[in-house]
Every structure is written in C-alpha cells, then in structure tokens.
Amino acid sequence: MSAVKAGLLALLSTLSAAAATAQVNPAHGAGQVPQCQLHINVPAGSWIVDGFDPFAGTDPGASFDVLFVNTGDRECRFFPLFQLDQAPFGIQAESGPRVPYTLYDDLSNYDATPLGGRTLRRAVAQPVIIAPHGQQAGRYTFHTQASSLPGDGFFTQRLILEAEDVNGTPIIDRQILLGVRVLPSAVMTLAGAFTRVNGQADVDLGTLQTGIAPVPLQLQVRSTRAYQLSAESLNGGRLRLGTTGWYVPYDLIVNGQQKPASGGRVYESARTTGNHQEVLPLGFRIGSVEQHRAGIYSDLLTLTVAVQ
C-alpha cells in the first residue's frame, strides 16, 4: 500500500449559551413552582471518524459521549432524538452519493438512526429522568460500511440532537457534525505462478528464452481514486548471473503494455473519480540470451502503487 499523507481539518460546532440551555418553565420568583433547566454538553463538538483506511479490513465507526445536565430545581423528563438539518439521509462528500449509516443509543438501548429525517420514537420507550441539579451521561455509537464508501474524501451529515418532553414538545437542541474522513489509499496484491520467500514473491521464469516468459501472473489493485504503478529494478532492468558481469535484459508487460523494467512509471489508471478495482495481467519479455554463460540469472524488482 502506498504511503499517503492527508491534511486534517478540525471542525468545531459552536452554540451560544442560549442555544445550549433550555427551561421547561419560565423563570420563577419566590413561591413559584420549581423548574427543569436542561443543558446538552457535547465534549467533542463534532463526531468524526478521522483518518479511515478503507482497505484495513474494518468498517468505520466510533462511540461518542453526551452529557445531559439539569441545573434546575425540578426533575427533567425527556426523550433524546436526532433530526436531519433539512438534507436527505446519509453522509456525503461534496456532491457525491450519500452513504447510509446507523446511530445507536447505548443509554436507552435503541436504534436512534434518523432514517426518515428523525429518530423514530417508540411507544415503549422510557424517558430519560434527571433529578434536580443532576446529570446523565449518554453514548451514541456510529457505524457505516467500508464497502459503501464510493472513494476517499470527507463524508459528513449535520444532525440536530434534540430533547423533547413526554408530550413531544422540544426542550433544547444541539447541532452535531457527524462524519468519516477517508484517506486516499491504494493496495496491490500479486496472484498467479509464484512462491513467497521471506515475505517476497519469488517468480521462476524457467529456462530463459528470448521472448515472453510463460509465467501467468496478475496484479490485483484497489484504490480510492486514480492511481499509477511504478517499477524499480536492482539491476537496472536486467537479470544478473550471481555477482558476475553477465546480464540478460528484460521488459515488463503490464495490462498488455510493454514498459522498461529499469525504473519509472509502468501503468496509469483511467483518471476517473471514486474507487478503482482492476486485475492487470503481468508478464516479462526476455531480451537476447545468445552467447550467455549458463547459470541462474535474477533481479530484485519492486512494484509500487500510489494514488494520484
């Protein structure tokens, strides 16, 4: 896999004190009924899975904490729900396709995903109850599938976390940016007639003859965007007899295109956006072997894939 550096952008969601605090009842003086005064604290500000590698064999996901605080003199009873900010459901990078996800409320043990634009409040759901001057921690688990991501980029959706009372009246809300930042990545594997020795692919070209070596090989490449392959040969694109000065030149054939094995770019994918997945036939064209000393000729060839 190619080494990739990606710039990281810290996003903060800020609210005024008035937006982060709400009273169920108006302010009261002496002798008036005590009131619930609810706050929603989101320590992270935004819920982002950062630096995700789509080829690491895992799905993007994380758990995020919320703190509900009651600074009033009366208990608070409410249901925490998510709403979409006037946008279709799904995280999205720029104008690309939307990717579905799930949000699970670990405190109340239910699916809080705003699939239809809003968390479905079940009839059997129990409200969160916070005593006067008390607090209650909440945790929400975000998950989406790596196979659903159409490429690299910053996939986000702005949500509104809302607390509504038992009658369905909103008490307070807080905006949260939910998302996944997918790194530009590419991976490559070799398939076909080879053996693996000390972590390296050992390809036996058989008895050297001028022309294409009869060795079936394939490069299997996956990338989050357009990519290129490059080659580096220890012997400058030549097979060498031990430590002697005897050499046999050879070229690479990648996806039907003959390229020098001496070094440099040997293949470039189509410059289209989004994920790429290709199987590229790999071959070797052997140069002249006339009047060469008998023996075992070899080279160390390094193939590298890098996103563009």
Architecture overview:
The chain is an all-beta fold and 308 residues long. The chain folds into two domains: 17-182, Sandwich (Immunoglobulin-like), CATH 2.60.40; 186-307, Immunoglobulin-like. The protein is 1% helix and 48% strand. The chain has one helix and 24 strands. It has one helix at 17-20; strands at 21-23, 37-41, 46-52, 61-70, 76-84, 102-105, 110-111, 128-130, 135-143, 153-164, 170-182, 186-192, 195-197, 200-202, 211-212, 217-223, 227-233, 238-241, 247-254, 257-260, 263-268, 276-286, 297-298, 301-307. Strands 12, 15, 16, 18, 19, 20, 22 and 23 form an eight-stranded antiparallel beta sheet that branches. Strands 1-2-4-9-6-7 form a six-stranded antiparallel beta sheet. Strand 10 and strand 11 form a beta hairpin. It is rod-shaped, with a radius of gyration of 30 Å. This is Spore coat protein U (SCPU) domain-containing protein. Keywords: Signal.
